[in-house]
Amino acid sequence: MTTMSPLLKQATPVVVDHALGSWIHATDGTEYLDFTTGIGVTSTGHCHPKVVAAAREQCGKIIHAQYTTVMHPPLLELTEKLGEKLPASMDSVFYASTGSEAVEAGMRLARMATGRPNIVVFQGGFHGRTVAAASMTTAGTKFSAGFAPLMAGVHMSVFPYAYRYGWDEDTAVKFALKELDYLLLTRTAPNETAAFLIEPALGDGGYLPTPPAFLEGLRERATTHGIMLILDEVQAGVGRTGRFWGHQHSAAVPDILLTAKGIASGFPISAMASSTALMSKGWPGSQGGTYGGNAVAAAAAVATLQVIDEENLVENARIRGDQLQAGLKDIATRFLAIGDVRGWGLMQGIEFTTAEGTPDAATASALQQETTKHGLLTLTCGPNGNVVRLIPALTVSTQEIDMGLQRFEAALAALSS
Ligand code: PMP
């Protein structure tokens, strides 16, 4: 019998038949409240009727219009709609299919534009699984071990992970900026450094918001030295954190912005945005792909952006996120294994630690399994695997958050008994 490759790690045994909004219906008839959204992808909920209608309609017109051969209206419309959301300095968008490709596009553009070889990344960053993206990923050795040599020219600096150090945020930010300055002094000189690549909130690396002051410190150094600030908004963008872009929690504006996941509610499309002046430093044909900017995915993305506006989903993410975090902090008072609850909007992480304060992956992993048994789908993350992450749809209701919190606590109680 042919089976799924053991290279895939399956978080749950669930086989989905169909799904709507925040709910997944398994083939065995079980219903699950989905706080994973396909790793932060189904932003408008599963199968939002307007997204489904847009994709269906586009399927009847043209499915694959290959954007380097013929252009198509959904991509032109998407570019216009995305333009309304982008920083004012950005007036040019490049499309691909996956987050990893967008990351590679950003890395290549930064190198081409500056003529410099090196990229500085930050501890715990996750940027994808292609060899170049994995080379810039430091969220765990499992993402790169065993297939070296990796891409050259990547240097890692410290992330201001205040909880891990037992510091306040301000101290952690000052330390991380000092370490970055030291890296620029000792390992990769500014005139050899093409870019700083960072997520506005660490995703797979532990669901940790990047302190605004740290991003602002990066911006300052990038401007001083002509280094590109690349923000990987693949997981934290498109309303997820209660702002349209994760970097909007700070005053820092990136030179290059990368997006994917939530932008099309489940259809594969990704984008790199920047200024025409910067994009023009690359040459036509240097980037692209067979499936990039697919017409059905682009139509779904246009519908997704419309739904996000019409239904005030960024605001909903902020309010429901506050509700979720308050509920989790309340639960944390009853369970000692919870060391930290943090996050912005509907991107919340619960970090598990032992009584001695060391990372407790066993509890996080057992809890993730247990929540499935209680009808709530969750995921873990973090280099230590000791963070449970909750990523509900941006459409999630007050009642669904309450229900999720009840199921989360019931699962925790079942583990503790
Ligand atoms: N960047 C970030 C921040 C991500 O979260 C991910 C996916 N988890 C990626 C890049 C890679 O995206 P993809 O899996 O679509 O290649």
Automatic annotation (TrEMBL):
Keywords: Aminotransferase, Pyridoxal phosphate, Transferase. Its EC number is 2.6.1.19, 2.6.1.22. One of its GO terms (molecular function) is (S)-3-amino-2-methylpropionate transaminase activity. This is (S)-3-amino-2-methylpropionate transaminase. Gene3D superfamilies: Aspartate Aminotransferase, domain 1, Type I PLP-dependent aspartate aminotransferase-like (Major domain). Belongs to the class-III pyridoxal-phosphate-dependent aminotransferase family. It catalyses: (S)-3-amino-2-methylpropanoate + 2-oxoglutarate = 2-methyl-3-oxopropanoate + L-glutamate; 4-aminobutanoate + 2-oxoglutarate = succinate semialdehyde + L-glutamate. Pathway: Amino-acid degradation; 4-aminobutanoate degradation. Transmembrane segments: none annotated. It holds the Pfam family Aminotran_3. It is an enzyme of class 2 (transferase). Its cofactor is pyridoxal 5'-phosphate. Coiled coil: none annotated.
